[in-house]
Specification:
The protein has 358 residues and is of the alpha/beta class. Helix content is 27%, strand content 24%. The protein folds into 2 domains: 4-233, L-asparaginase, N-terminal domain (Rossmann fold); 241-357, Rossmann fold. The strands form 5 sheets. A 9-stranded mixed beta sheet has the order 4-5-1-6-8-9-10-13-14, sandwiched between helices. A 4-stranded parallel beta sheet has the order 16-17-18-19, with helices on both faces. Strands 2-3 form a two-stranded antiparallel sheet.
């Protein structure tokens, strides 16, 4: 008897399942499963008719047989009642996704989240921290061109994601897009026009989909068998966090307004972590916030690069000396997600939160 693997695909919205409305703009469509069942690359209807249609697995779809695995991969689509453009996603949406993975954890061998691309880097980072321990593969994916259109990239993105979730033991949150699988806390959206919309500037991809699915074992955090098959969820996120980008026109009034009422701020600085230090009033606003236990994290505006614990320039050193935390090679999205996560660790003191954030 052929061994089967089961995957849960959580459909949250995004370009993947969008159609144009009467105004000619794209909006998410319901009942995406009906469309997918008609696509032979995503559903083996003959197998379903013969083996599943009259069984308790009739709600599943089946991936057609191929060279990537000898297993039969079955998957179920769990469509949210309210589908969103990812620009509308908030922490509540990611909390729901994480809780659903926890809820259905023991019913499936892996998980795929169909997520809008605009906030995928945020969602993947948040889920990576919330799912403190996960023994199964979790893949976020989506599309630049909707699945309803003939040139959609969503078909291959979704197919590869389902296969990876079913057949590859990569126990963490990841993002598959184009032909590469990235670590969830390392990914950035780098283009809104190219099919290869995502990249991982400071870390190589975990897997590349060539003529076969090729995992780079050196890039994996957890060797096979080293992680227990459990899901430990931290289901709290702070919303009193924000990203403030340094620009030549920045003012102390703007910094003060952003920092007011915040528990944490990601400061996107120039180059190696620099701010306009000649303008002392800007520095003093940041210093005052840190003294009031606002956790400020210093991340570079550069797509590729680091903010080190030993700065190269005086401007970066002064920030470090006043208690701003260097993000090293984290993305702004990951730094914000980690802040949102760490700040809800009520058992930690401010000093401990600073230490965890580094």
């Amino acid at each position: 008897m052929v061994q089967t693997k089961r995957v849960l695909a959580i459909y949250t919205g995004g370009t993947f399942g969008m159609l144009k409305n009467e105004k000619g703009v794209l909006v998410p469509q319901k009942d995406i499963e009906k469309v997918i069942r008609r696509l032979p690359q995503l559903h083996d209807n003959e197998y379903w008719t013969q083996s599943l249609s009259k069984s308790d697995k009739k709600e599943y779809l089946a991936i057609p047989d191929g060279k990537d695995t000898d297993l039969k991969v079955l998957y179920k689509i769990y469509e949210y009642e309210e589908l969103k453009d990812s620009s509308d996603f908030t922490t509540d949406d990611w909390l729901r996704m994480a809780r659903d993975i926890k809820k259905f954890y023991h019913d499936y061998d892996g998980f795929v989240v169909l997520h809008g691309t605009d906030t995928t880097a945020y969602g993947a980072s948040v889920l990576s921290f919330m799912l403190e321990s996960v023994g199964k593969t979790v893949v976020l994916t989506g599309a630049q061109v909707p699945i309803f259109q003939p040139r959609s990239d969503g078909l291959n993105n979704f197919l590869c994601s389902i296969l990876i979730a079913a057949t590859q033991h990569i126990p963490e949150v990841t993002v598959f897009f184009g032909c590469k699988l990235f670590r969830g806390t390392r990914v950035k959206k780098v283009s809104n026009t190219r099919i290869y919309a995502f990249d991982s500037p400071n870390y190589p991809p975990l897997l590349e989909a060539k003529v076969s699915l090729e995992v780079d074992p050196k890039m994996l955090i957890h060797p096979p068998g080293s992680v227990p098959d459990e899901c430990r969820l931290h289901d709290k996120l702070s919303t009193k966090v924000y990203v403030l980008k340094v620009a030549p026109t920045i003012t102390p009034e703007l910094i003060r307004a952003v920092l007011k009422g915040m528990d944490g701020v990601v400061l996107e600085t120039y180059g190696n972590g620099n701010i306009p230090i000649k303008r002392k009033e800007i520095y003093k606003e940041i210093e005052r916030a840190v003294k009031n236990n606002v956790l400020v994290v210093n991340v570079t505006q550069c797509i590729n690069g680091t903010v080190l614990g030993k700065p190269f320039y005086e401007t970066g050193l002064l920030l470090l000396e006043c208690g701003v935390v260097p993000a090293f090679d984290m993305t702004a999205e990951a730094a914000l997600a980690k802040l949102s996560y760490v700040l809800t660790k009520t058992e930690l003191s401010y000093a401990q939160k600073v230490e965890v954030q580094t």
